[in-house]
Design goal:
With 277 residues, the protein is an alpha/beta fold. It contains eleven helices and nine strands. Strands 5-4-3-6-7-9-8 form a seven-stranded mixed β-sheet, with helices on both faces. The longest helix is centred in the first third of the chain and has 15 residues. The chain binds glutamine. This is Release factor glutamine methyltransferase. Belongs to the protein N5-glutamine methyltransferase family. PrmC subfamily. Its EC number is 2.1.1.297. It catalyses: L-glutaminyl-[peptide chain release factor] + S-adenosyl-L-methionine = N(5)-methyl-L-glutaminyl-[peptide chain release factor] + S-adenosyl-L-homocysteine + H(+).
Length: 277
């Protein structure tokens, strides 16, 4: 069977399983099985592919048929132009979250805290873009902290990143930061069933939803932040599309000024930032 025929067969199977972009995913998985860049697929003939690689491709297509996310299957995701290791223990970094990073980079900072860092995509991207800064990431999940440590090493910034296992800020040693960022779990409990199977069935529930109306993390973070921020410090969080007003009010109630709601490329409220003074 030619590579083109194998790709067509895989695409058909993925399409039947309800995968949104089956042709693209089939190509991404084949390239990953071959260990090459997707753009080089056209240069490959079937004779260049070993049996082991074909079986690997077959296993990957089967996983995708079960709606496992592509990033989990190939073990990586590009975020802000950097490559992050992704496992089933962490949230798959989202393009919307790149917007939070852009906003964070608007103002210089020397120290940054990421609450619930998961893969580390936010914290580690910020450290990578600002070579003189240092950062702390906390997460309640020990498995997530391991993934973040792998990513810090891959990016060569392990010396500037510290990881603390902590339920919110409970176990964090007393200190202050110029910047606090967080993309907490914010999906309301009753919205979980409506999620795509890739998210609902495969991503860690603890990274997706705090239960209830999804707003509790913002209460915890806005109430705690002033105690962990320098006087001119900044707090930036990602929010759900319908949480802007409620979270902006929490910022204001805790004394934050210049509170700003920013939209993502889809036009949804996605990020809230505020300054302590
Ligand atoms: N900070 C990580 C991210 O943005 C993890 C967020 C989470 O698990 N809720 O991808």
């Amino acid at each position: 069977m030619t590579l083109t025929a194998r790709l067509a067969a895989a695409t058909r199977r993925l399409k039947e399983s309800g995968v949104a972009d089956p042709a693209r995913d089939a190509r991404v998985l084949l390239a990953a099985a071959l260990g090459i860049d997707r753009t080089r697929l056209t240069l490959m003939g079937e004779d260049d592919v070993t049996d082991a690689q074909f079986s690997q491709f077959e296993r990957m297509v089967s996983a995708r048929e079960k709606r496992q996310p592509v990033a989990q299957i190939i073990g990586k995701r590009e975020f802000f132009g950097l490559e992050f290791t992704v496992t089933p223990d962490v949230l798959d970094p989202r393009p919307e979250t790149e917007h939070l990073v852009e906003i964070a980079l608007e103002k210089p900072f020397e120290s940054v805290l990421d609450i619930g860092l998961g893969s580390g995509c936010i914290l580690l991207t910020l450290l990578h873009k600002t070579p003189d800064s240092r950062g702390v990431g906390c997460d309640v999940s020990a498995a997530a902290l391991k993934v973040a440590a792998v990513n810090a090493k891959r990016l060569g910034i392990e010396g500037r990143a510290e990881f603390v296992q902590s339920n919110w800020l409970d176990a964090l040693p007393e200190q202050r930061f110029d910047l606090i960022v967080s993309n907490p779990p914010y999906i309301a409990a009753d919205a979980m069933q409506g999620l795509a199977p890739e998210v609902r069935d495969w991503e860690p529930e603890i990274a997706l939803t705090p239960g209830g109306d999804g707003l509790e993390p913002y209460r915890i973070i806005t109430q705690a932040a002033p105690r962990w921020l320098n006087k001119t410090g900044r707090l930036i969080v990602e929010i759900g599309f319908d949480q802007g007003e409620a979270v902006a009010e929490m910022f204001a109630n805790e004394g934050f000024v210049n509170v700003r709601i920013s939209k993502d490329y889809a036009g949804h409220d996605r990020v809230i930032s505020g300054d302590l003074t």
